[in-house]
Write a structure and sequence with these properties.
CATH architecture: Alpha-Beta Barrel
Number of domains: 1
Distance between the termini: 38 Å
CATH superfamily: Aldolase class I
Strand order of the largest sheet: 1-2-3-4-5-6-7-8
CATH class: Alpha Beta
Bound molecules: flavin mononucleotide
Shape: globular
Number of helices: 14
CATH topology: TIM Barrel
């Protein structure tokens, strides 16, 4: 189903820049791409926003991920983002890094303040016509029960237009674990995402975390609950840059039902990259 959002490459700082996305697009025409997180203040204070926000048109479908926690600065940043024609604006509520989480309240720390997230998302909605989505964890620190996750989803969805949550299916600890450990040590709980799908039938959920192969993506997408519902899409992070060819090279046919994949072999991809970057 070309055009559907079934698979995406996760926002990754220092990875999913415009060049990496160029490679991803050579491998898959249909996979959604995300920018690195762009902090709202960076956009507001920088006279040359092209440096963070420009992309070539073939990178559609593409989402811009914002970082921030102040509705009015997020609104201003999203007004600038809107001029670039992104297909979705996403708010980072899952990043545990000290660099981010320590600078005021944003990233995963926002999960502790669902009302504030609802206000941020309402502000983003005012600035853009495209879908506004939240990327979050299962929980943060001691706020890690399924009930607390439901409370977060309920407050954010009732207080804003958010209908789609992308969930990294593990909790995070703001202190004591490095960002890398926060992506490996807390256990993955895919079952919680299926429980959310059951408990919030009007919302959509995408699953992120630990997905390694295109075959895994296919089986997660195919899984149906007893009510006949499943995830909206799968988001892959590390597997897409550890092994872009295996993860994305056959995604168009395996995931999107396209007749062919854009790249016949790795050499062809290398040649295309050389044509763009070579001297
Ligand atoms: C190098 C790196 C940078 C990341 N930067 C971001 C980011 O900017 N925003 C975000 O929401 N998540 C970020 N993440 C988390 C990923 O988006 C994703 O949620 C996480 O890696 C789990 O997915 P995976 O197991 O498929 O890698 C980053 C992850 C990595 C490895």
């Amino acid at each position: 189903m070309a055009g559907s959002k079934l698979l995406s490459v996760a926002p990754m700082m220092d990875v999913t820049d415009v060049q990496f996305r160029h490679l991803a697009r050579l491998l898959s025409r249909h996979t959604w791409l995300y920018t690195e997180m762009v902090v709202d203040q960076t956009i507001r204070h920088n006279p040359v926003t092209d440096r963070f926000l420009w992309y070539p048109p073939e990178q559609h479908p593409i989402a811009c991920q914002l970082g921030g926690s102040n509705p009015s600065t997020l609104r201003e940043a999203a007004q600038i983002v809107a001029q670039y024609g992104y297909d979705e604006v996403n708010l980072n509520c899952g990043c545990p890094s000290d660099r981010v989480a320590g600078a005021g309240c944003f990233g995963a720390a926002l999960m502790l303040q669902p009302e504030a997230v609802a206000n941020c998302m309402a502000a983003l909605r005012e600035a853009t016509d495209v879908a506004v989505t939240v990327k979050c964890r299962l929980g943060v620190d001691q706020a890690d029960s399924y009930e607390e996750l439901c409370n977060f989803i309920k407050i954010v969805s009732e207080g804003s237009d958010v209908r789609h949550f992308i969930i990294h299916a593990r909790k995070c600890l703001l202190k004591g674990l490095s960002p890398h450990q926060n992506r490996t040590i807390p256990p993955l709980r895919y079952g919680w995402i299926h429980a959310l799908i059951r408990d919030f039938p009007d919302l959509e959920f995408s699953l992120n975390g630990g997905v390694k192969t295109c075959e895994d993506v296919r089986s997660i997408l195919d899984y149906r609950s007893p009510e006949g519902r499943g995830v909206r899409s799968v988001m892959v992070g590390r597997a897409a840059y550890d092994n872009p060819w295996n993860m994305l090279g056959k995604a168009d046919t395996m995931i999107f039902g396209a007749e062919s994949n854009p790249a016949a072999n790795r050499r062809q991809v290398m040649r295309s990259l050389h044509d763009v970057h070579g001297t």
